[in-house]
Amino acid sequence: MYDPPASADGRRVLVDRVWPRGVRKDALELDEWLKDVAPSTQLRKWYAHDPDRFDEFTSRYREELSGGDAAAALAELRSVTGPLTLLTATKDLDLSHATVLRDLLAE
User: Which Pfam families match (predicted)?
Assistant: First the structure.
């Protein structure tokens, strides 16, 4: 999200539940904002980017993505043809839901 768009990005989708703090909606170049594919507020607050909870967070997040609106949003991402860029305000991508989502989409 912090890098400028590139022609190779393809479809640019924001995958955060809340809009990034301090970013104007007209300033972020994206094709879609898919809130439903983000972790639930309850899970996000429990996790709090605690590295010790990342493995459990990953399991719980994958479980959330298997049902309801989250599953529908995941199916929408899976239906994208061509390049797909997942955008997130998370700065530590190693511990990010976007990385979990990327890995799930690659399976």
Answer: DUF488-N3i (PF22752)
pLDDT at 64: 97
**Tally of domains within the chain:** 1
Confidence of residue 25 (pLDDT cuts 50, 70, 90): confident
Which structural domain range is residue 70 located in?
Answer: 10-106
Residue 3 lies in a domain: no
d(CA 88, CA 70): 17
> Is residue 44 one of the residues assigned to a domain?
yes
Residues 6+ apart with CB under 8 A from 71: 65
* CB 96 within 8 Å of CB 58: no
Instruction: Inform me whether the pLDDT recorded for 17 exceeds 70.
Output: yes
CA–CA dist 26, 5 (Å, integer): 14
The pair of structure tokens assigned to 61 is 């997040």
